[in-house]
Amino acid sequence: MIERLLLGPGPSNAYPEVLEALSQPVLGHLDPVFLSLLDETSERLRSVFKTSNALTLPISGTGSAGMEACFVNLLEPGDTGIIGVNGVFGERMCEVARRCGAEVLRVEAPWGDPIDPQRLLDTQSANPRARVVAVVHAETSTGVESEIAPLSILQETDTLLIVDTVTGLGGVPVNVDAWGVDACYSGTQKCLGVPPGLSPITLSPRAVERIKNRSIPAQSWYLDLGLIGDYVGAARKYHHTAPTSMIAALHAGLGVLLDEGLEASWARHRSVGSQLQSSLVERGFKLIAQDGYRLPQLTAAWLPEGSDEATLRRALLDGWSIEVGGGLGAFAGKAWRVGLMGHSARPESVERLINAVDALGLNGSLN
Ligand SMILES: *Cc1c(COP(=O)(O)O)cnc(C)c1O
Fold first, then answer.
1. Which end of the chain is more exposed for a tag (fewer CB within 10 A), N or C?
2. Pocket lining: 91 vs ligand 1, CB cutoff 6 Å
3. Tens of pLDDT along 163-199?
4. Is the pTM above the cut of 0.90?
5. Fold of 16-258
6. Cβ–ligand 1 contact at 186 (below 6 Å)
């Protein structure tokens, strides 16, 4: 198979150790050897999420499965959910919450701006019976980071805090316990350097309590965290067949991340991200995310006037084997989303991309 340099909004390139783990023989989901690998994976996830939450595990499915697991387990019909919306993924949260039968209160910010945490808190004060406040930490549609730490005060209320760290985890600091996050989900194929297929999630003791006290079962049987917890926890009761090889791959990827060190990984993402952002600005690109809230691992940028976005992007793929992402929504056809995540977050990635862009010229035909 052809090898791509994956610089889109995910998937990113997998670490070599992860590909090695994927090539190992398949284990059964109740094999004691596999179960100890699963326990160790959960332990590694606790280190990466910075949490002591017992219910910390990889959900079968991509990041959206983790999102859905949090919402369907924590919301019941008639509940109120306060949701920050400043891009595609906040919008997706609203749709998932709506399908749970919840009433959604949107706290919006323009695409490219962060969500003001004070506005979420004010909305919660005005609606103290709201079941959840939910916010995307790293908006992959715009490259914006929203502040989570000020929301830890929700711990003093009856409202739970759900945070999407699909693009954040491994690339920028995430601190589940210190930020008072009750339900947090991520994805393997962004800054963790593992192929798509699993969604690491973690739930606080009070989120677990909420699930136990539901008046009706979660509408999703597959994502029911009570049932899944009986397999991941001491009971080891079969629920669905765990994707054992993907969990081995995640185990290996988390090993690479923890060996490097979280601080070192954040510093690496920061350094290559600023290298890319200044190189793009030098070439006439305009960064979409507000200054001070720019993610290093995902850069959304308007192409210079007169560029042929789609032709150039296709030429990068066909001629240079480099994948970058197009813009979503109002950004389609005019902007790029360039990811430098996990194993893709290396100075050589920036050099290869910039060299290719310079060689192609902005209309996508060779200079
Ligand atoms: C990618 C992403 C998701 C969805 O993950 P999938 O793996 O595509 O299901 C959710 N939230 C954010 C912020 C993402 O970047």
1. N
2. no
3. 999 999 999 999 999 999 999 999 999 999 999 999 9
4. yes
5. Aspartate Aminotransferase; domain 2 (3.40.640)
6. no
